[in-house]
């Protein structure tokens, strides 16, 4: 199967991508992994991407697209793949569609992990990070024995700026703005499938798997 996974920050996308890909015995292909592989492998594209990242700039679409094309051309992706982090926008979605058509194939389904903003805030704003060892705790889901102190090393816990409610809400707004057109693009293509991404991790995977079965043929 050829699957794209989308979902807001805090939806557990990385975890679900891993589980779903392993259930389907297809490679999980994330743009983060592709970037790292190209940079550490010293490819021309990796060198280009690194120049942008080192300057703090976004890697341009054409560089990302070229890396995705290389990765999707590898043998393990011939029978299927799960894409995580690509496409990010409608132009990338159109490029992906053309690319797959050249390979004589097309996407089967786009899974959209659906979580309410308030739930994302609840998940992310409870995170506390240890200043000394970097371990991440959660006030509700994984609290340390003593408030404000890391069980692992005794270090002081603090809330990263990224985990502050106002930062999370801003990221969610940006995400919705950028992703809404992508969601409608795939809805128009008739391959969009929403998955309720609340509750235990295993239940979410099960929901995703039954959604995928409906698109299997
Ligand atoms: Zn610690």
Distance between the termini: 9 Å
Largest sheet: spatial strand order: 2-3-1-4-8
- Ligands, deduplicated: zinc ion
Report the biggest beta sheet as strand number plus sense, adding barrel if it closes.
Answer: 5 strands, parallel
What is the gyration radius calculated from CA atoms?
19 Å
- Poorly predicted segments: none
Helix/strand-derived category reads alpha/beta
Number of strands: 8
Provide mean pLDDT, rounded. Answer: 94
The number of helical elements comes to 8
Q: Order of helices and strands, N to C?
A: EHEHHHEHEHEEEHEH
What portion of the residues fall into strands of 2 or more residues? 5-15%
Helix content: 40-55%
Shape by Cα distribution: globular
